[in-house]
């Protein structure tokens, strides 16, 4: 492709971004989710007979709940709304933003009997596996919803999946001249357009715990693509790394990158909807990762009964509908996703079960982590 053609495409992308911003300002709205019927103060018949003790215990905890999480506020909004509708005495929910440091912070608080967090919600598989494997780190609460859920819903003992969020591929439609359905398609496109994508592809940074988790899972746990490393060997030399899905999407929309992969659907779905067609977010047919957003109750939590109510709620049919409305991927049978937001069951129908990779929650040795990162980083663009 000539430099003039590339320049024209890039200028077209910039103009398209301006059009998207203008149309957003004019008040274009996505279809609303259907109402979520909530049985206020009531629980299903399959809950234990003494569950009322948890409810009464919660009423005595001051109406507060504290959550440490990296989940965005827009994802939380319908969940908090409906939980507080069900249990209206819970008047204050503090969602503290946290990263990898939270595990060590909680261990220190547990050791000094100064725990300030009720629930931990995170997608860091290694961090969760290490923390949950430590004695007395989690409340050994067994949710009565567990028997109503798929077996994979319990990620670790006493750690449940709130959602199963896909990782996808995104590209700027003003800069890519054809539809892409997977990472292999992107690699083929790059081969057919020499030089066009050099340094113009963005991948999640494997130096971060989350980036390492998803990169390793796609290459090491992907039955749909047993030669996944060969695809990475084609794409990584074209790629630069960024530390968040939000940054990946932002720079693809701006035209700084043409395409990107290992991008969270929690960001991708919403940005595709807002882009007016400039951004395409795709769940790869050559392996779509599903990463559990693990939720567990911290031992010695300051509001343990309210935490139990919340855990049971997000796993219930009511809670899973709210999870879906917030843009995350619900997995409970019978729950329908919000418009344009598929559930796990929808993904099985669309892609086939063999194309879905549920990322395992496991710990690896430092040597294994370093070996993978060295190989990954050694392939990255310049």
Query: Quick one: CATH class of the largest domain?
Result: Alpha Beta
User: How many separate domains make up the residues?
Assistant: 2
Low-confidence stretches: 1-30
Shape: globular
- N- to C-terminal distance: 22 Å
Structural class: alpha/beta
CATH fold annotation of the largest domain: D-Maltodextrin-Binding Protein, domain 2
Strand content bin? 15-25%
Helical fraction: 40-55%
Q: Can you summarize the main beta sheet?
A: 11 strands, mixed
What is the CA-based Rg, rounded? 22 Å
Write down the secondary-structure element order.
HHEHEHEHEEHEHHEHEHEEHHHEH
Number of strands: 11
The CATH superfamily of the largest domain turns out to be Periplasmic binding protein-like II
Supply the number of helical segments: 14
Mean pLDDT: 91
Name the CATH architecture of the largest domain: 3-Layer(aba) Sandwich
